[in-house]
Amino acid sequence: MRWWDIEPVLALEAELFPEDAWSEGMFWSELAHARGERATRHYVVAEGPSDGRLVGYAGLAAAGGLGDVQTIAVSRDQWGTGLGARLLTDLLKEATAFECEEVLLEVRVDNTRAQKLYERFGFEPIGFRRGYYQPGNVDALVMRLIVQGTGTEI
Q1: pLDDT averaged over the chain?
Q2: How far is it, in rounded angstroms, from Cα 130 to Cα 140?
Q3: Radius of gyration (Cα) for the chain, nearest Å?
Q4: Which is nearest to 108 in space by CA: 86, 135, 128, 126?
C-alpha cells in the first residue's frame, strides 16, 4: 500500500465498516512505519483482475516477536474468491520476515466469516475485548497463532 491507495482504501473501509472505519490519519500513520530498515508495519492492497480497482487491503504491525493483524478487508463482490486468504497469507509471510513468534488479531464476535478464515490458518481464540469496536460497543474475539517453536510453518 502506498499513499495514493489511501483514498480508495478509505472508500472500501467506509463501505465495509461504516460504524468503526479507520480515519485517513490512521492509515497515514501506519504507512509512516511501513518503509525503511526500521519498518514495523506491512500493508498491501489487491486490485481487481479486470479493472484494476482496489478490492482489498491488509496490514500487519510487528514488534518484539509479536505480530498483530491490524486490518483485512475484501470488497463484497470478491467474497468467496480466496482473496482474504491470499491477503492473510501475505501478512503471515511478513510476520515470519519480522521474526514474530506469534500473531494476534481481533475480530468482531459477529463476523463469523472472518473467524472461520482465521481458524483455517490455525488461529485459536484466547479471549475477548468487551466493547472493543466503537461506537457500536461490539465485543472483539482475540485470536492467536503460534508461529515458531511449534512446527507450524507459515
Answers
A1: 92
A2: 6
A3: 15
A4: 128
User: Confidence class of residue 143 from pLDDT cuts 50, 70 and 90?
Assistant: very high
What's the CA gap between 34 and 62, in Å, rounded? Answer: 10
pLDDT, tens only, 42-79: 999 999 888 889 999 999 999 999 999 999 999 999 99
Q: Which secondary-structure segment (H or E) carries 125? A: strand 124-133
| Element at 95 (helix H, strand E) | helix 83-97
> What is the four-CA torsion angle of 107, 110, 44, 35, rounded to 10 degrees?
-30
**What CA–CA distance (Å, rounded) separates 9 from 1?**
9
Q: Residue 153: phi, psi to the nearest 5?
A: -115, 140
Question: For position 148, what pLDDT does the model report?
Answer: 60
pLDDT (0 to 100) of residue 154 = 47
The three-point CA angle 3-121-1 to 5° equals 5
